[in-house]
Amino acid sequence: MTADSFFSRLNPVLVGLLRSPLHFLASAGLMLVTVTGRHSGRRYTIPVGYQRDGEVVTVMVSEARSKQWWRNYSEPGPVTLRIRGREVHGTAHVVSPESEEFRDAAEQTLRRMPWLGRVFHVDYDRAAGLGDEQVAQLGDEIAVVRISLEGEDA
3-state SS of the chain: helix, strand, coil percent to 5? Predict the structure, then answer.
């Protein structure tokens, strides 16, 4: 069984957990993102890892080439999230891998969770930080989606 097929089978369990009163067991690092397909118009809800800084939520999509949902946000668009048991709305956009915003998001994530370097296929050293070659490699491996939350009680 591949990692992708394992997580595909686990997704319905995580969706159920994150929608339940027991969401606190996983919602510190996982949230649900509900996306409407650009072409199909179908709604998809999937669990993703996230980081929140005030009214901005960042999602680092590992193995991005094999995933589709994030491609809906090559242009900014609406998204619904379930974070820590609450439904919130926002506007999502994909961060260009050539931008400083991409580099900063990757650096912040890896500083907080250096073990993700293995997941993202880079050898990360907190003391040295990300080099240009590593950022380029990350640009091939991951997508960064930034979500600006809406509303006063987001």
Answer: 35, 30, 35
DSSP 6-59: HHHHHHHHHHHHHHSTTGGGTTTTEEEEEEE-TTT--EEEEEEE-EEETTEEEE
Cα four-point dihedral sign 45, 51, 52, 53: negative
Alpha carbon distance 87, 85 (integer Å): 7
Domain 3-149, CATH class in plain words: mainly beta
Question: What is the residue extent of each domain of the chain?
Answer: 3-149
26-62 tens-digit pLDDT: 888 999 999 988 888 899 999 999 999 999 999 999 9
Residue 51 CA to residue 109 CA, distance in Å, equals: 8
CA angle 111, 115, 119 (to 5 degrees): 115
- Helix (H) / strand (E) containing 118: helix 116-119
Rounded Cα–Cα distance for residues 59 and 92 (Å): 10
Distance CA(86)–CA(66), nearest Å, equals 29
Supply the pTM of this predicted model: 0.87
